[in-house]
Write a structure and sequence with these properties.
alpha/beta; 52% helix; elongated; 18 helices; single chain
Amino acid sequence: MTDIRPFLNMELHVTVWLRGKCKNCNTTIKKRIFDYGTLPFKVLEEKMDETQHMIEKIHCSKCGMENSPESIIYLDEGRGMTIVEQKIDYGNLMFTDDPHSENLKREHELRFKIFKKNETQFWEQYTDYAIANWRSMVNELQDFEIKDAFLKINMETHANTVSKLRKEVLNRLNTIEEKQRFWKQANDYFIYHHLLEIGAMGWDVTMDIQHYGKKRMRFIILHFPLGEATEQLRTEWIGSVIQKNREDNDFLFRRISMLASELNRLRGKITDYVHQIDKLKAERARLEYKLHQAYENINRLENKKIVYHRDTSDIEKIHELKTFVNELIQELKEKERIIHELKPVETSTENAPVLDENENKEEVTDDKYSTLIGKTIAIIGGQRQEQAQKEYVCQILTHPGESLDHDFYQTIKKADILVLLTQFIPHVTMWEAKAYAIENNKPIYYSKSINIQKILYDIVG
């Protein structure tokens, strides 16, 4: 492990990026979300500690598809190289409106104060643990840690390798007092300039075990002073440092380890679901595009009857296209069902106030509406039931259009004219209604209005 202290005054220009792959066209996509500017490493580290980055969707410049990013990257702009790239764990994200997240951030800011309050007791326990396991603990020290400790306790050394330095510690330090003084000085960087500077929320336990040793990290995870909200992190870390012994306490620790592993598995599953939903949305978009093309072909062939006599090949082609449309609709429904299983259905935002019946309505005569007398009009989309109770020149049927249930099909079957409120229905409902209208030669209108009287005026106008 390298001692980074000589590099603390080096200036770096760091930017933060989100990266992923488009689930539609498989293009690698990136988006810059923050620029720290050019700062000395020490100042940059403090700035990064204070800054939170929001995870947001990335639009693919090639096909326009919106995707969830897969990793966050810190980039050294000066050298054009990646400092670190971390996979985004969607099962472990912090949300700004989560009280527990707020408590974690507050304790992160107070971590020096929390440690100071328990500092004396911590060092007593830590040095006692080190002396009880002296040889194995010394063998986890790095060369710069040993050299710093020898210098601070005024012991000269000429050893030039880490193995010789460790051997010298084991041979030259004999009393408990010498070992206590040495151990505290040797761990000064580890405790104060690594663990405390980063804070528990930023610890990478797996990496720290590799750099600082399993025994040292075992003690840190079990005994490092943390706040009440941060204690939850301690429980998750236990599984990575507890060995499989047979004592009662170790049995409990192994149980905690099993639960932590299950939690990590579920978090990974959530991350997989996020990207799976993106893939399903991309597949649905492709199906909707094919469906749109199929309808255009049907309309073009249907319109031929105005000028030309339809021959046998045209009839067969229309039949094939209609069959293809039905297959696309069924597949689209299946994709919609899977997406709803993976992600809770979002609550409709269609609570717009009903417009006044006279708003935006031109002066019309009763004769203008005479063509609607005796007709039944089905309005699909939103919540129009209350408006439909008023008296009109024709019968009004309504359906919210959020699902293709039995009532939906009964409503469009009874109607002479179909009206789709495009702002309040999903694509699959629109295509189903359009297919029914074409099949049964019923007029179909598309409207952004939510006032029934205005909709009737648009129909007759």
